[in-house]
Amino acid sequence: MKGFNSAALVRLSGLICVLSVCSDVSVAKEASPAASVRYDELSRAFELKAKDVSYVFGINERGDLQALHWGGRFADNDALPIAKAARDHSSFEPSASITPQEYPGWGSTYYGEPSLKVSFPDGNRDLVLHYVSHHIDGTRLLVQLKDISRDVRVELRYEIDAETGILGRSARVENRTGKVLTVQQAAAASWSLPAADDYRLYSLSGRWADEWNLDERRLAPGTTVLESRRGSTGHQNNPWFAVARDASNEESGPVWFGALAWSGSWRISVEQDPTHRLRITGGYNPFDFAYRLASGGILETPMFYGGYTKSGLGEASRLMHRFQLAHILPHAPKPRLRPVLYNSWEATEFKVDEAGQTKLAEMAARIGVERFVMDDGWFGARNNDKAGLGDWTVNPNKFPNGLKPLVDKVKSLGMDFGLWVEPEMVNPDSDLYRKHPDWVLNFPGRPRTEARNQLVLNLARTDVRDHVFRVLDELLTQNDIAFLKWDYNRNWSEPGWSEQLPEDQQKVYVAYVKNLYWILQRVRERHPNVEIESCSGGGGRVDLGILRFTEEVWPSDNTDPYDRLSIQDGFTYAYAPAVMMAWVTDSPNWLNQRGTSLEYRFLSSMQGSLGIGANLTHWTEPDFELASRLIGEYKKIRGAVQQGNLYRLVSPRQGSPHSVTESVSADGAQAVLFAFLHSSSMGSNYPRVQLLGLDAEARYRMRAIAGKAQSDTPDEASGAYWMSRGINLDLRGDFQAAAVVFDRIGARK
Ligand code: GLA
């Protein structure tokens, strides 16, 4: 995990509790912005506080750690509430089950989703965790729990971010029993919300080429499970959630949200108990999970981040975006802006060679592209998806002189060079597989089911991990490569790890992903200027775990610019536009045959991190001119688009023919509006668009970079004017779009 920046903190007093004997009150404070952690001995409660958020839990009379508050910020002089276990509702709803615990073990009369479930060699499976001690260090809080009779320790880790109030939580399970035990289920955290009847859950679901659908459902007693059992994050659900109330909407009302930083099988369960309290538990997916801990053994969970706002889903997204920029992404808190890239995939598919790529590179350079990326097909016997994966040597027929002439050419054109790889996979028709058939996930004697003609290398094996690292290290050492598009084009099947004892094989779910992170980290350390994109047949591996090592992600193989409006809208609920790659490709689109203008395709892609994926050899001179102009404009606005504050003014999901986004730069000096029209009927005007997030008193100059405003629009007006009257856009017809820039005149007052 990347630590939060606690440099500005001033510790006011030291640590306090050893083995439940507490003798002091510890408070850590900073001047501004405020973030603090305190333990109040009178109420035996903890508070983590930052931005508009207080997170409070306490030690109840039984010794359970009990959730007390996650929401609006308390005053500094407020007493903390006292944790009191709920009374038995009946013999069927006993106290242990309806008291909101911070990290419940499965045992006693607890019937809800456990955070931790273990089995002991003597058959005992009862685990009841009680508070032991805690330690406060700046904005970090560690709380030790222990089973009531066996020495199973859990350290709960909390940290709060001063700027966003987002908490990072994780758990560390340690076996001190002197005997082996098996962890059957381990969550990173469990979040509790008080009883209410109007909770709504938002989640993201999809499938290949149709990712990032925002689903909304009203919660009722029972459990909703979001998960991946596939060994990786998955297209089907993303490890993100938001919970709102009936009165909440895009820009107002309470929203609790969170995301797991894990790229393996995961689960988030959202459970409303019989008393209508909510519990959201997330971590390793317990399905097919078993992690044996020898005596002294430790299992650490991934991080589960969670935040709160009273200002709607839009603000929840902006907080997540800011948090990712400041704490998650490579080079945080100052991640680099995304260069405009060209990618060869849709133009050439596997038919790459030196002459063809050189021609595309020359054309890409003409329009202002900054990075040229050669996709699949350059290595091994890779002429289609049936062979070659695993053999990461340059195909001599396609590149008789290696990659150097192409890389040199690309660099001489003023661009840097990027390359597609899929390091975790192997085609059975490859030299690597012929040499090491035992390196793939498999159960001996059982089928090895292929998907896209490929099998998954078992990265959990140290020899495989080291091989994959060595291959990438050599590739990056021998070639002047600035960027890797790291693909992953199938999910797991038959996940055996036969070198391990049968009872340790299921560790593969943890060990594989940890080794993946290990490789990514080593590659970055050895090649600090190389940037990486996470791709998995589109958006199948996007999460806060992989994003610590990757500057950007490929949200979907669906590049239709109209479909992309919804895909991008959904994506931004959880992830920052800074990481959202969007290519301008050919029309009609390969997936759905929809025809759209080049300008419309550009504007759709300019909502994210712009790339070009079209076959430039088919372009006309006016196409090149338009592309050069719009790429030039994009470079002036990308700071606001990629790293600014995003307002989803009209969502394409709402079924209206219009959609509008606005991005305001972090310094407030620029706002960029993108407006799209699917079709106009009955001669209707485009609805007037009122902006958000401007400085009401500042003046802004308006400039349309595509499409136009109606003639009644002033060239210049106050922020108040643009936010209250707004702008009338002159948009009519099918698949029309406009982009308007508002530049602040003068410095912020
Ligand atoms: C996946 C990616 C595509 C492309 C192909 C290459 O499908 O999502 O963008 O790289 O692989 O085989």
Short characterization:
The chain has 749 residues and is α+β, with helices and mostly antiparallel strands. Helices cover 19% and strands 30% of the residues.
Notable traits:
binds alpha-D-galactopyranose, alpha+beta, about 20% helix, eight-stranded parallel sheet, about 30% strand, about 750 residues, disordered N terminus, globular, ten-stranded antiparallel sheet
Report on the structure:
This protein has 749 residues and is of the alpha+beta class. The chain is built from 12 helices and 38 strands. The strands form 6 sheets. Strands 8, 9, 10, 11, 13, 14, 16, 17, 21 and 22 form a 10-stranded antiparallel β-sheet that branches. Helix 9 runs parallel beside helix 10. It starts with 9 loop residues before the first strand and ends with a strand. The N terminus is likely disordered. The chain binds alpha-D-galactopyranose (GLA). Alpha-D-galactopyranose (GLA) binds next to loops.
